[in-house]
Structure formats: C-alpha cells, structure tokens
Amino acid sequence: METLKVDSITNDFLQNLLKGNRSNCSLIAHNYLKKNPSIKDLYEEVFKVSLYEVGRLWETNQITVATEHMATAITEGILNELFEQITPKKKFNKRVVVACVENEQHQVGIKMVADVFEMKGWESLFLGAGIPTAELIRFIRESKPDVLAISLSIYFNFTNLIKMLELVRSDFSGLQIIVGGQAFSRVSNDAMQKLGNVVLLPDLYLLEKYIETLNT
Ligand code: B12
C-alpha cells in the first residue's frame, strides 16, 4: 500500500484552510480517507494539527482573527460532511451527552468526540458550545445518558467546570463523566482532585479505548 505522507497532506490542508479554499480542503480530506479510511486519524493528524498551527499563527499575529474564524468554519463544515461516512459495525444501546463547559466556545474537539462515540455505535447528543449548566442538567434529566463528556479548552473556565460537576453530581450521582481538552495540560494534579471521579482522556485514540471498555 502507498505510504501516506501525512505531514505534506496536513500542510496542504492548512495552506488551503488559510486561503479559504473549502473545496480543496474537502478534496484533501476525502483523498486521505481513500488511502487511510480512519476518520479518527484524519481528525488527529490533519485537522487537529492544522488548527493548532492556525492558533499559533493567530497568537503570533501572522494571521487575522477573520482568517482563524474562516479556517475553523471550513473544518467544522468538513466534519459535518464526513458524518455520513460514519457507519458503526454494531450499534449499542448507549447514549452520551457531549458538551462544552459553560462559557467555553471551542467546540471542534468535542464535536470530534461526539463522532468517535457514533463510530463506536453510540447515540451522541452533541450540544456544542455555550450551554448554561442549568440547561445541561435539564437535558440530562430528559435524555438519561450513560456518559457525560465535557470539553475544556481555556484554563480560565476551570472553575466553571468544578461548579458544573458539583451541580451535575448533586442530581445524577452515578453518572459517568469524562473530560478532555487542551486546558488540562495546565491543570495540576492537586487541582484535578477537585474534579472528583472523572476520567480524563487527552485524545481520540484513548477515547476509543475507553468506549471499547464500555461496549461489552
Ligand atoms: C478556533 C479557535 C477559537 C474559536 C472557536 C470556534 C469554534 N467553533 O470552536 C473562537 C474564535 C471562538 C476562539 C475564542 C477564543 N480563544 Co481560541 N482557539 C481556536 C483555535 C485556533 C482552534 C481550536 C480547535 O478547534 N482546535 C482543534 C481541536 C480538534 O483540538 P482540541 O480542542 O484540543 O480537541 C482535541 C483534544 O483536546 C480532545 N478533546 C477536546 N475536548 C475533549 C473532551 C473530551 C471528553 C475528550 C475525551 C477529548 C477532548 O479531542 C480533540 C482531538 O484530539 C485554538 C488553537 C489550538 N491550539 O487549538 C485557539 C485557542 C484554543 N484559543 C485561545 C484563546 C486564548 C481564545 C480566547 C481567550 C481569545 C480571546 N482573547 O478572546 C477566546 C476564548 C473564548 C471562550 N470563552 O472559549 C488559546 C488558548 C490558550 C489557553 N490554553 O488558554 C488557543 C490555544 C490559541 C493560542 N495559541 O493562543 N478560539
């Protein structure tokens, strides 16, 4: 099989994102999947790496906020486009509610998380960014998920996460909660203790392994 030149594919994707060329980005994603039919690898190796680089270029004033918004919007559009290719081998009668912590606006990573659950045969209820905790709790009451997945990208939202978890636990003490997102690289072990019994999963590979332990 032809070896995949992932770095050059990722760079090609990134350059097209920065130019705003959505159709080329879409083509690159589909071509990647023809060579390696792993949506998870595409997300991790191409989309995530590109968006982290977009963040670095933005932080160092090499691109504008508008270009960053455009790049993110194109990537989200392609995630939606690829959703139809997610066909689990087996369906499990399990449900996950997937959301960002209150005030967190970064939703691409957690959307990937929702897709991985779907690939593993779960029903994903994706609430995205900006969900107030009270509304999340109401939604959990109605949808009765097996797992709650929460994303935290910005460290200053950590106290919101602690509050959110306290409120969720007071109503749903047995609910399994998993968390992830780049902010956790800044969270000390002591601070992690404040979150109580949560599973921290840094990427989609470990997420998949975690889901497999539940798919029995
Ligand atoms: C796009 C973007 C935005 C967009 C988001 C739009 C959207 N629709 O999502 C907008 C413009 C809203 C935005 C705003 C801000 N942003 Co911003 N943003 C980004 C950018 C460029 C890309 C984010 C992204 O999609 N990454 C790709 C995804 C796939 O990666 P990920 O989120 O890490 O997810 C992966 C894992 O972490 C994991 N994961 C994530 N969540 C979960 C949850 C679970 C349960 C599991 C299992 C796994 C998991 O799975 C994913 C796959 O591996 C990043 C750069 C970067 N390094 O990411 C900056 C970045 C995150 N933003 C940053 C900042 C500072 C901000 C602002 C504070 C800027 C400002 N001054 O206003 C605001 C904060 C807004 C808020 N309250 O949330 C900083 C954060 C620094 C920090 N760590 O504190 C970054 C790193 C940029 C930088 N280099 O400075 N941003």
Total domain count: 2
Could you tell me which ligands this complex binds, including any ions or cofactors? cobalamin
Q: So, the CATH homologous superfamily of the largest domain?
A: Cobalamin-binding domain
CATH architecture assignment name of the largest domain? 3-Layer(aba) Sandwich
Number of helices: 9
Task: Give me the secondary-structure category.
Answer: alpha/beta
Question: How would a textbook summarize the main sheet?
Answer: 5 strands, parallel
Residue share in helix:
55-70%
Shape: globular
Poorly predicted regions are none
Number of strands: 5
Main-sheet strand order equals 2-1-3-4-5
* CATH level-1 class of the largest domain: Alpha Beta
Task: Briefly note the CATH topology name of the largest domain.
Answer: Rossmann fold
This entry's quaternary arrangement is single chain
Mean pLDDT: 95
What is the H-and-E element order? HHHHEHEHEHEHEH
Computed Rg: 18 Å
Could you explain the architecture of this structure?
The protein contains nine helices and five strands; from the N terminus they run H-H-H-H-E-H-E-H-E-H-E-H-E-H. It is globular and about 50 Å long. The chain is 56% helix and 11% strand. It has helices spanning 6-19, 22-35, 39-59, 65-82, 108-119, 133-143, 158-171, 189-193, 204-214; strands at residues 95-100, 123-128, 147-151, 176-180, 199-200. The chain has a five-stranded parallel sheet, sandwiched between helices. Helix 1 packs antiparallel against helix 2. It has two domains: 6-85, Methionine synthase domain (Methyltransferase, Methionine Synthase (B12-binding Domains), Chain A, domain 1, Orthogonal Bundle), CATH 1.10.1240.10; 95-214, Rossmann fold (3-Layer(aba) Sandwich), CATH 3.40.50.280. The two termini are 33 Å apart. The chain is of the alpha/beta class and 216 residues long. Cobalamin is lined by residues 44, 48, 51-52, 54-56, 58-59, 68-69, 72, 103-110, 112-113, 149-151, 153-155, 178-183, 201, 203-204, 207. Residues 44, 48, 51-52, 54-56, 58-59, 68-69, 72, 103-110, 112-113, 149-151, 153-155, 178-183, 201, 203-204, 207 line the site of cobalamin (B12).
